[in-house]
Amino acid sequence: MVEKFLKRSSWTDIVISIIFVLFGALLIAKPNETVGAISIILGILFIAMGVLKLVEYYTADTKEDWLLTVALISVVLGIVILFASDAILSVFRVIVGIWIIATGIMDLQTTLVWKEVKSPYWTAAVALSMVMMLAGIIILVNQNILFTTMGIIIVIYGILDIIDRFIFMKKISNYMKKD
Q1: What residue spans define the domains of the chain?
Q2: How far apart, in whole angstroms, are the C-alpha atoms of residue 20 and residue 29?
Q3: Would you say the pTM of this structure is higher than 0.85?
Q4: What are the two backbone dihedrals, phi and then psi, of residue 138, each rounded to the nearest 5 degrees?
Q5: pLDDT tens string 122-174
Q6: 8 Å CB contact between 101 and 126
Q7: What is the rounded CA–CA span in Å between residue 19 and residue 41?
Q8: What would the pLDDT profile of 64-88 be if each residue is shown by its tens digit?
Q9: CA-CA distances (angstroms) from residue 158 to 41, 85, 162?
Q10: SS3 category, 66
């Protein structure tokens, strides 16, 4: 039951990371055109993440309150972003930076569990988590970061998160088979 929940959660996170990779690629390929559409894309992105987390919450065997909270906050934030695009564009960098840092912190917490179960993957996962947090910090502290550079960082984050999720799913499957 726990394995099923963790795998479902990981697949949801992989879909979210793929969305981030596509968004980052769009920033790299067409930065000027993308800047005008950032609030719409970001609003839809947060609404999609919220809906995916809501589906995950309602289809899970055990109800995790934090999952419902994240889902509702994401949907509300997405709606606010869609309707307050001018104000949101100025804080876009901050939102993305915080999201990437938070994901890196959550992944770091997961890797600490891997260390306890003596997983050979934990050092790679720690490194990936640290790189994700560093990418988020770079986005936060560099006010003059170009959208193309930000797109590159977002793509790297998305790819690292996808790799991290696959490692996690492989490890949880191996761990559950031992029991």
Answers
A1: 2-178
A2: 14
A3: no
A4: -60, -45
A5: 787 788 889 889 988 988 887 667 677 878 888 888 898 888 888 877 777 66
A6: no
A7: 10
A8: 788 888 899 999 989 988 887 666 6
A9: 16, 24, 6
A10: helix
